[in-house]
Amino acid sequence: MTAAVHDVPARRARLARVLPWFTLAVLALLAALVPVFAGEQTADFSRALLPPAPDRLLGTDHFGHSLAARTAEGLRLSLVIAAVCALASTVLGVAVGVGAATVGGWFDAVVMRLVDGVNAMPHLVLGVVIAALWRGHPVAIIASIALTHWPAVARIVRAELLELRTAGWIEAARLAGAGRGFVAVRHLLPAAGGQALVAMVVLLPHAVWHETTLSFLGVGLSPDRASLGTLLGEARGDVLTGAWWTLAVPGLALVVAALACSRAGAALQRATRPPIGGVW
């Protein structure tokens, strides 16, 4: 009895680690399969803004499309763009962080001032400016998010490697004649892999929210592309007519996806963090 009681916190901890990843897997599966089974969506205004019913579980939008299929398409596009943005931000941040920690001196100081400068800019405003230059193109969305979120990764990687570069095995490699480039590629860069993976997962919810915000404001993806942002933008007028489901369905998908990404990042951080007061 006592053992079972003490095992409850451990079960909850395991559930907290597994549930976000399971939720993400389910969302990815739905985003991939629902549009396939729903078939190609064509405009049918005789079925526009129909409420949820047994033959249309999530209702229809103002074009008569199945809202379940459109939301799945939007979720798929938003998750793909967010993953590419997180990967691009992480690669850029790791490159800057490794370079600053490897070279040091004046180069490190200049890079850190650049990081401070980018951090001082409002990310959403800067993202809107970049996205507006190539309006409607996914590449513009990716660039606007990646170019505003890499400084956090660069700071984390640099701080980690500044402690590591004074380690004994790094000094031994230098005494053996290894140059800065060799040390950076063979020793420092692999050591930053764990932090880079955590940073990429942590960036996912930020990328999802930013892509949705830009598309909702009309400077992101074009309205003919189904993303969570464009669906929410289209639903603004529909809600005034009483079609609440056009806002509720993509909004719920956005919240669940963002929370799952955020919790997955937190779980990965806890898993890669050494125990307090000890080592692995």
Structure write-up:
- Mean pLDDT is 81; it is low at 274-280.
- The protein is elongated and about 75 Å long.
- The chain has helices spanning 2-38, 67-103, 105-120, 123-133, 138-164, 168-175, 180-191, 193-217, 228-239, 245-272.
- It starts with a helix and ends in an 8-residue tail after the last helix.
- It has one domain (60-272): MetI-like fold (Orthogonal Bundle).
- It is mostly helical and 280 residues long.
CATH superfamily: MetI-like
Instruction: Give the overall shape.
Output: elongated
Unreliable stretches, pLDDT < 50, 5 or more residues? 274-280
User: How many helices in DSSP terms?
Assistant: 10
- Count of extended strands: 0
Q: What is the arithmetic mean of pLDDT?
A: 81
C-alpha Rg (nearest Å): 23 Å
Gap from first CA to last CA: 31 Å
Classify the secondary structure makeup into a structural class.
mainly alpha
Largest sheet: none
Helix and strand pattern: HHHHHHHHHH
Indicate the CATH topology: MetI-like fold
**Percent of residues in β-strands:** under 5%
Oligomer: single chain
Proportion in helices: over 70%
The CATH architecture classification is: Orthogonal Bundle
State the CATH class. Answer: Mainly Alpha
